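Supplementary Text 2. Reproducibility record for the structural model of the 969-residue chain.

All settings were left at their defaults, and a single model was retained for analysis rather than an ensemble. We include the record here because the model underlies the residue-level annotations in Supplementary Table 4.
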Amino acid sequence: MASESDDEFVTLLCTNPNAAEDTETFISTTDIHNWELSAILRCQTVKIQAHRVRLVEQSSYFHGLLSGSFCESNLSCVSIQWNMEVFINVLKCVYGCKVDITSKTFLSLFEAALYFGVESLLLTCKTWFSEASSTKGPGLLEIQVDDLIHIWNFGLEHVASTKLMKCGLANLQMQAISGKFFGDVPYNLLFHCIKHPDLTVYSEMHLADALLVWLTANTERLEPLSKAEDDCTGILNQLRISLLPLWFAAGKRRSCYFTELAEKSMETIFRLLKIPPADSIGIFDDGDLDHLRIRLTEYSKKVNLSGCPQITSVILLLSLLPNSYCVDFMLRKSIRQSLINLERLSANRDQCGSGILHGLPPILSFEGVEEVDISKCPRLHLESTIEIFLKSFPSLRKLRATHLLNFKTTTLHKLMLKCPRISEVDLTIDITPLIPAQVSVISSSPVIVPPLTNKSCFVGNNFLGMASYHSQPSVSNITRLILEGRSDISDLDLQYITGLCVSLKYINLKGCVSVTDTGISNLICRCSKLHSILVCDTSFGINSIQALCSGITSFGPAASDLEKRCSDTLAFKLQTLHIGGCMGVDERSLFDLMSQTQALVSLCLRGTHVVDDALYHFPGSSLEILDISNTMVSGDALAYIVNGNPALKCLNARGCKNLIHQGSNTSGTELSSSYSCRDLYTVLGKKCMLEEIAFGWGFSWLSLLALRPAIMSLRAISVGLGGSLGEDALRLLPTTCPMLESLILCFQVISDAIIINFMRSLRHLQALSLCYCLGDVSTSSFKNSIANLRKLRLERVTPQMTNNDLVVLTQNCASLVEFSLVGCRLLNSDSLRLISQGWPGLISVHLEDCGEVTATGVSYLFNCRALEDILLRHNGPGIPSSFILDAASKMPMLRQLALDLCDACEGDFDIPNDGNRYLLSIVKIARCKFQRSTNIYFQETHRRPVHKDTLVLVWNAQNLNSTVVKERI
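Retained model, structure tokens:
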């Protein structure tokens, strides 16, 4: 019996040269479920008794070794030369035990599974790899880029694993772009990723960015291949350049790898833009339509089309049809008429768009897509696009559609009905400059858009005309709604929105100047789940505060208990409250409101009537963001708040003149001991870890020293009027705050040495603003390269700047997208050419009082095709009357334009109508009057222009407002 038992088992001898103990142990697979791996790995020698038949059946290695004609077949002991931990996991899988696989253990286990021929372990590895490399399931992001590189290199040596490698390519780019190992990805792996049908990226821009990152990291390796046919830069030809955002393509025209493709991309984009909507179906005459198909896979979670003005509903729909319909000519012909109908619908944006997919073949459904961004896509017909979302993105939860004036409240209503799962909607547009508290109106004349025809689905822009559209509207699941800048939103619109969005938790009405305090208070009363309210620069006032501080009641019968406790109010539960610029709130109301806001995380009181007593009675301890800029609060009151809120990260106290004065507590209420904190900056330095700060009055070198412990990770600092850092503080700023990304200095004394230090030391700097600063500053201070800089403002600091200096700036700050110059009077008409050639991807340019920049015209500026914001004032009278019309047509992303009649060569500017303004929504035209010099001998030669007023044109979804204000805005 003993002999027969011995034949059933074989001893596997494993050695561990890195063992912690020089010992030997004997274990048996009969007890494999109770093995303690850590104890086993401590031994140098491990003898494992295993069932011979089990090994032969489960492993091709042991099948050949123990059941063949080898001499080892009769051995009772077999030596295993393999990593002990890995081999033990192989045995566990052989015996049906669960094996935990991670990105670090996968490769070793997969290699062992191949070597020992354990099919069950191979299947386990393949399953894990497929799930971990997918965007679905709990394995998301488990495989890091360096792991995938090792796996790929291993796969090249083992043909059997080639299929497995392809399973993991679908989601490489989105994981890899931000990874430090992305530059190490082999060319063949990258190429297979792009060609793989399951390649998953948010947008074509993300893919292009990834490839440019890889090419930059592999410059040296590419140099020997520069003349070879297999030049790695050819990988860029896999991009679908027709789908790149306009600003991205424009900005890459200076890229050493992307220049030619960027030019082709720009050419294609503008060719598509020139095709009228009714004729855009002509793209179906193209034999190859892949270049117009948006990359969508079963793994897609986000679709980002932002900044692509060439995108139409047809292009979107084309990407959602099965590929066979785009390849087969007869099938394409059969759907042509249906798509023509769709484009006819697009030409008439006021129609409902119901049934637009009738007659089309079934479009594909991508259930994983949860977020879509169609911001700045003005050619999309929104009604039909929503129908497409309904069919193809049934799980859609987030929609960003910013800067689309044609996205009316009725469109929002349809979105709620058609996409019931949607929970977050962002409809932001530019905030009107006509904020009542900030301008003095001389005259105003709204130009109403003609009413819609009887064929229209609604009347006007409010919801009251939609009874026939949907007699019993369903309740929406929207919890987060952003309507920032929507001056066409009225109280009636809010009333209907709140009737549908009963679960609303976050509302942003910033700059919605047409809503009243009553409308906002009604919204607050209706939405009992609100925890975030952003209403800066609106009529938010006493009624709204009373609604916040009143007990929460259900919308219906009045509550029987009129005496509500503080904890029953919305104010008590608020997490975000932004009421900056709301001048309808008096001191008493602010006091009542602040005393009840227990849970606030973000608070903006900019420019309000808040006083110290309101801060002293603030009970919260969770503040992370606080803006009390341009208020009368004192340093003591602010120190009190800081002392009780150690999580504070962002603080804006610019324009607070009372920070340098001692505070007071007029209410006589006894305060906690924290009121004894007199030094604001000392408290901040001891209590907080700040990320963003903005100070003015009283901020000095000593203040910065006191803050030093709290600002080592600071990302943004702004010092304004009343602050004085001095040369010593500015010199130490880069070492004190090495992570700075944004630096704004106004009314400071600076020098060349200071700026040079900034340029050399602040390697993360993305935004630099120097405004109205004094000191010995020359343009030589900008001769150091700063590759990450994206925004540069030089206002009244470099009066001696010349065109040669501009050339240096374009070379050393090559990544700029926003550029502002004021007071550079030595510049001439050649400067625009240098600016447009040096920064073709600019999205914002401000030039004021800059010599003769526009004296001979502005044609060179049209080379910056992606501009969204232009300000040209007092630069020479060479701007033609047609400039606004030309700019709107040649720069399809342009939204804001500011000019001065002094620069009009024909004395005036033509104003676009609603049909030819594209995205343009705000036009400001300043007007001057000439004031004589006080010197009687030079009255004729010293007549200087002085501001008179500003004509402001603001378009919204409903009308055009023409307003004249006193201010120069």
